[in-house]
Amino acid sequence: AQSVTQLDSQVPVFEEAPVELRCNYSSSVSVYLFWYVQYPNQGLQLLLKYLSGSTLVKGINGFEAEFNKSQTSFHLRKPSVHISDTAEYFCAVSVWNFNKFYFGSGTKLNVKP
Amino acid sequence: EAQVTQNPRYLITVTGKKLTVTCSQNMNHEYMSWYRQDPGLGLRQIYYSMNVEVTDKGDVPEGYKVSRKEKRNFPLILESPSPNQTSLYFCASRRPGTGDYEQYFGPGTRLTVT
């Protein structure tokens, strides 16, 4: 079975500071990895995904993530955050047929002025 | 505009009263899925459908039913709701087999069962 762990439930950070949101997964098979963002009272929006190839993946809004197979991690990073990045972020994994998805518990990013 | 719609957006009901939450997408997607979101637990998959008349269980299917009679619609049915089904529900769709594995999410339905 697959599982996803997001180690931080909340991350406070000042505007223009860098941020890293951590995600670790557990799986006995090859996985595909995703980060989603949820703004207040909205559905989820895809930030980026890792399917294969380069382990450094760039997404929308200046976010990037690095797939580390040996550490089973897929941490999300942004070099300089804005107030508008305040949202909840979810890491998710899927396996070979992309029919089943497993989400982490979410990390609330609170960007302060 | 390409979108996934859900109705109702908010629903308060009582234990045991059957209800249906509708989900519709206008992108001609074959794959659709239902999730519930609970604080501290993230999203958990309830059911998914790969195409018309093809559905399968996710991680938390107990107490729910689905049907897929048309490609655009994927209703979620709670035949006898209980308070532990109070949650925020999301429907999602995507087009499999094209390399585009992005799921498009609806706006959510907040359900309260008293």
What topology does this entry show?
The complex is a heterodimer of chains A (113) and B (114).
Chain A: E1 3-5, E2 10-14, E3 19-21, E4 24-26, E5 32-38, E6 44-50, E7 56-58, E8 64-68, E9 73-78, E10 87-94, E11 101-103, E12 107-112
Parallel strand pairs in A: 2-12
Antiparallel strand pairs in A: 1-4, 3-9, 5-6, 5-10, 7-8, 8-9, 10-11, 10-12
Chain B: E1 4-7, E2 10-13, E3 19-25, E4 31-38, E5 42-51, E6 54-57, E7 65-66, E8 76-78, E9 87-94, E10 104-105, E11 109-113
Parallel strand pairs in B: 2-11
Antiparallel strand pairs in B: 1-3, 3-8, 4-5, 4-9, 5-6, 7-8, 9-10, 9-11
Write a structural description.
- The complex is a heterodimer of chains A (113) and B (114).
- In chain A, the strands form 3 sheets. In chain A, strands 2, 5, 6, 10, 11 and 12 form a 6-stranded mixed β-sheet that branches. Chain A has a 4-stranded antiparallel β-sheet with strand order 3-9-8-7, with no helix packed on it. In chain A, strands 1-4 form a two-stranded antiparallel sheet.
- Chain A has no helices and 12 strands.
- Chain A has 113 residues and is mainly beta.
- Helix content of chain A is 0%, strand content 52%.
- Chain B starts with a strand and ends with a strand.
- In chain B, a hairpin with a 2-residue loop joins β5 and β6.
- With 114 residues, chain B is an all-beta fold.
- The mean pLDDT of chain B is 93.
- Chain B has strands at residues 4-7, 10-13, 19-25, 31-38, 42-51, 54-57, 65-66, 76-78, 87-94, 104-105, 109-113.
- Chains A and B meet through β6, β10 and β11 of A and β4, β5 and β9 of B.
Q: Could you give the order of the helices and strands of chain A?
A: EEEEEEEEEEEE
Main beta sheet of chain A:
6 strands, mixed
Distance between the termini of chain B: 36 Å
Q: What is the number of strand segments of chain B? A: 11
Which residues of chain B sit in consecutive blocks of at least 5 with pLDDT less than 50?
Answer: none
